[in-house]
Amino acid sequence: MASYHAAAARRRRATGPAPSLTGPASDVHPVLRRATAPPAALDLLAQARAGLDEAAVLETPNERYATAHLAALRTAAAVLAARGRPEPNPRRRARIRSAWEVLPEIAPELTEWSALFASGARRRARAEAGIQGAATRRDADDLIRDVAMFLRLVERMLVLQPVLPQPRQDTDAGEEGQGFPETG
User: Fold this and answer.
1) CA neighbor of 79 nearest in space, from 95, 100, 97
2) What are the residue boundaries of the structural domains of the chain, listed by start?
3) Bridge partners of residue 162, in order along the sequence
4) How does pLDDT run across 28-54, given as a tens digit for each residue?
5) In 1, 71, 139, 154, which residue has its Cα 20 to 30 A from 163's Cα atom?
6) Full-model pTM
């Protein structure tokens, strides 16, 4: 029995791997390549990252909270820019809706994030208006942490979307053994 397995292993080494239809034998299991989001979405992500960095160094809780919430809004806008608009209802007149209302329709996987940031919109408006105590230091810290996580998630979702590679055309594969590796 052991000699049978040894002989099979020698045959596998002698013949090499099976040829690939899309390229050389080394591409039997291609690695997924990355697609990128549209330039407008990438720009919004960069603005969101800059806003989050700014929020982290601001002094007052109101400024920190408002700036971090704006970074979350820009992150949501990047998703909307990359994925398009929801289907309009032809029977109803279109009303203005916040990004937090539209986001779950475009990206259902972000529904919980949308609800979280929508719940902070009124506090952000109060903080932007300069109402004393609209946001505490703890509120600002929590929001900055949440926005950082949301931004990383969206960056992964938009910038690192896996796509299958296109088949390669190898010009010199037909010259040496029709795509088979040297068995030496």
Assistant:
1) 100
2) 34-83+96-159
3) 34
4) 555 554 557 788 899 999 999 999 999
5) 71
6) 0.66
